[in-house]
Amino acid sequence: MGAVLTSDGEAADQLLGVQTPIASETQLFADTTPDDGSYSPTPVPEISAKPATSIGPNGVPLYVELRGLTTPAREGQTYPVTFRFQKAGSVQAMVPVEIPKGP
Predict the structure, then answer these.
(1) pTM of the predicted structure, to 2 decimals
(2) Are 17 and 45 in contact (CB under 8 A)?
């Protein structure tokens, strides 16, 4: 799952984890693209967010792997996802499923 999270707070925060009832486990990844430009997502324990910035495809790339799906994720459906932050606490959002279209 790719996401863009926008902080409108005045203090830095950290995304500590993600939960959803459609997966038994999740793993945060950050894109640590090497100099050769190849895609290289790396598992991370948390992702830092500076005040008044976005993290995600246009900022620091954010990816969440959903493991052990408890229900099939179907394109066009939305599912509850809880993002857990160090300072902001838990924030729930309904996240749509979109299948990336290839070239």
Answers:
(1) 0.78
(2) no
Which residues, 6+ apart, have CB-to-CB distance to 89 below 8 Å? none
Residue type, 37: G
| Structure-token match 């990816």, residue found | 63
pLDDT tens, residue by residue, 11-39 = 888 889 999 999 999 998 876 665 666 66
Q: Which residues contact 76 (CB under 8 A, 6 or more apart)?
A: 96, 97
pLDDT digits (tens, 9 = 90+) for 66-96: 899 998 888 889 999 999 999 889 999 998 8
* Phi, psi angles (nearest 5°) of residue 63: -135, 145
Instruction: Give the start-to-end residue ranges of the domains of the chain.
Output: 5-96
Q: What's the topology of domain 5-96?
A: Immunoglobulin-like (2.60.40)
